[in-house]
Amino acid sequence: MGWKAGLAALLLLPAAAAAHPSRGIVVAPDGRVYFSDLERIWSIAPDGPLRLVREHRGVHTHELAMTRGGDLIGEDSTYNPADQSYRESIWRITPQGRFSLVFGPAKAVRGVSVTRDARGCTWHADHTRLN
């Protein structure tokens, strides 16, 4: 299966969780496509194979970004029912596969994001239903 067919198949999958959809899909300089299904990070190689990059059950990765150097950057969000709070962190995986935390985990940090504009400003958009 080529990468276009793999991406088309991905787009036909049902959403993993309608309340917290992943908005992370990026393309590396080598053409590899990375995406999050909320608890796992996957890659699709230009020649088609699907590969599990990171599995982190119970932790949601909503956002992904790609640096110009090919580092994959992601955001993790974990709910702590004991104090009804969230822990947020930002991580990095190098093209060589080395994982490291860039930020956190930190409690109650809202608006943490991996989306940046050309000037380096960080952006985060989310939605809240008002009753």
Could you say which overall geometry the principal axes of the C-alpha atoms support? globular
N to C succession of SSEs: HEEEEEEEEEE
The helical percent reads under 10%
Over all CA atoms, what is the radius of gyration?
15 Å
Number of helices: 1
Termini separation = 46 Å
Strand order of the largest sheet: 1-2-3-4
Number of strands: 10
Structural category is: mainly beta
Mean pLDDT, all residues = 75
- Unreliable stretches (pLDDT < 50, length at least 5) are 14-19
Structure description:
With 131 residues, the protein is mainly β. It is built from 1 helix and 10 strands. The strands form 3 sheets. Strands 1-2-3-4 form a 4-stranded antiparallel beta sheet, with helices on one face. The protein has a 4-stranded antiparallel beta sheet with strand order 5-6-7-8, with no helix packed on it. It has a two-stranded antiparallel ribbon with strand order 9-10. A hairpin with a 5-residue loop joins β3 and β4. About 5% of the residues have low confidence.
What is shown here, in short?
By secondary structure, this protein is mostly beta strands. It is built from one helix and ten strands; from the N terminus they run H-E-E-E-E-E-E-E-E-E-E.
